[in-house]
Amino acid sequence: LYHDQDTDGITYLDLFFSLADQSQKVLPEISLFSSLLTQLPTENYGVLELQTEIETNLGVFGSEAGAFAIKDKPLVSQEFLAVRMSFLKDKKQEAVRILDEVINRTQATDKNYIRNIIKQMKFALEQAVIAGGNRFAIRKALSCFKMANAIQDAFSGLTFLRFLQKLDAEYEEKGDELLGKLMHCRNTLFARDRLTLSLTGEYDEDLIREVVRVLPDGKMGGAAERHLQKKQSLGIVIPAEVGFAVKGGLAEDAEKACTGTAEVAAQLLSFGYLWNTIRVKGGAYGTGFSADNEGTVGIYSYRDPSAKASLEAFMDLGDQLRAFVSSDETVDKYIISTISNMDPLMTPRTAGQSAAALYFRGVAKEDREKEYREILHTDKNALLTYADELDKVLKDAVTVVIGGKETVEGLKDQLDVIENLQQ
């Protein structure tokens, strides 16, 4: 993939290595491996030496595991291990040398050192859930409906946290096995057969050839099976008095619900009814409603003293949309704000990354144009139709609540499973 952007002499290089043949159960291990890259020594550098080399020669060098949702296919996703780099044109030889060193010579051999990193990652992720549980809760709820969310939850969500917690508890017995798995990731996941390369900046065929040259040989296997998470409402107890309430779901009627109108409705309800009811009257620090033109719906409250009341308010969203339709207020300002969100100011780097994401998702220029038209042509009749579909989504939605013990226990009649965050 090539993105012709004026980057002032900086090259942005993203290497996407397909994980399509990897079992879903090993995806948390791959995410851990991606987090450990550049935090482990290599054959020729200690950790501090390697990081000094990166800081001296490159702007960015990092890796992450991620999943792209596929347009119109909620049960399908594309999963990748991505290596992201940026560097000045005259540093390309150093960039290739560092890439070669990291992907081919990283050493996962220090058992105690790696355990300390795992403990730090576990603690940081637990704190992230306590501070911003709405993000984790929405992903968990949508994992029951959309494959990309289920995979991303395994990479960086609550499923990944449970993996880290279990790994930490069993490390004495399974640490050596983990080291072998990490080295297996290094030896198999960077094969050139897996690669899709994305370049933003000046096109450089020699650079591309050199990057491909340092990648190891290897062939991908057949596509691995994927599955959604079990559809169940979940409560997670955290050491806090406030909480996060979430409902997530997916519309089934694509013709009526999977339109740009859903995005306009989300803006309208977020900054109208939800803000007044949950933020102003309910005392939560924040609230929001996200929807897209593929039928996904996620509603949340943030640092909420009354999660139960917020969940009840969520169920009234369809009626509130009908009330808006009956009012004298126009929809114009919500259309404008929706379009504004679709066209944020982008740097050359983010423009290249956005274009690559659209490619992997299978979203063409015509699809984007259709989405714009649906947003711009949203009227009250369209909102009225969407209100009926929103009722259906909410009726079938999954609830996830993250909060203090009293908050979660008070909702036990609405929750199928209750767990403690820290295990």
**Structural shape:** globular
Question: Could you give the count of β-strands?
Answer: 11
Q: For the residues shown, what is the average pLDDT? A: 95
Rg of Cα set: 23 Å
Taking pLDDT < 50 over at least 5 consecutive residues as the criterion, the unreliable ranges are none
N-to-C SSE string, H for helix and E for strand: EEHHEEHHHHHEHEEHHEEHHHHHHEHE
Provide a count of the helices: 17
In which range does the helix fraction lie?
40-55%
Largest sheet: 6 strands, mixed
**Content of β-strand:** 15-25%
Measured between the Cα atoms of the first and last residue, the distance is 43 Å
Q: How are the strands of the biggest sheet laid out side by side?
A: 8-9-7-10-6-11
Helix/strand/pairing category: alpha/beta
What does this protein structure show overall?
The chain is of the alpha/beta class and 423 residues long. It is built from 17 helices and eleven strands. It has helices at residues 27-36, 47-57, 92-105, 111-142, 147-156, 158-169, 171-188, 205-214, 254-257, 260-281, 307-314, 317-326, 332-342, 348-361, 365-376, 380-395, 405-409, and strands at 2-3, 10-18, 60-70, 73-88, 195-200, 234-237, 244-250, 286-291, 296-302, 398-403, 417-420. Helix 10 crosses helix 15. The longest helix is centred in the first third of the chain and has 32 residues, at 111-142. It is globular.
